[in-house]
Amino acid sequence: MSEPKYVFFDRTESLMESILKDAATFGFLLLCIYVSRDSAWWTFATGTMAVLMIGTKAHLASNRAFKFRTTAEIKAWAESLPE
Predict the structure, then answer these.
(1) What are the TM regions of this chain, as residue ranges (predicted)?
(2) Which residues of 44-81 are buried (b: 16+ CB within 10 A; e: fewer)?
(3) What tens digit of pLDDT does each residue of 52-78 get?
(4) pTM for this model (two decimals)
């Protein structure tokens, strides 16, 4: 199959939601750094959790993209949206 010609991103997230989500992520990472000090085991464990969390966030963000090959597909998608 050919590559998508059109890509639409669902950007319905508000600025406050985005700030809160990022604050929660960085707060978790700071907690990981604090807990892991002076311990190789906890550094590995919290680092692994942080990488998994960031990977999950990236995967969820990629699910917000809609890819289309033709304008007919875009029209059908737009007509299927609730009002």
Answers:
(1) 42-60
(2) eebeebbeeeeeeeeeeeeeeeeebeeeeeeeeeeeee
(3) 888 887 787 777 778 888 888 888 888
(4) 0.52
DSSP three-state, residue 81: coil
- Cβ atoms within 10 Å, residue 32: 18
Residue-range domain boundaries for the chain: 6-80
Q: Scanning the structure block, which residue is given the tokens 């059109």? A: 6
Helix or strand (DSSP H, E) at 31: helix 15-35
Average pLDDT rounded to a whole number, residues 10-24: 80
CA nearest to 4, candidates 70, 63, 79, 75: 70
Token pair, residue 62, equals 């990629």
6, β-bridge pairs: 68
How many angstroms separate the CA atoms of 79 and 83, rounded? 9
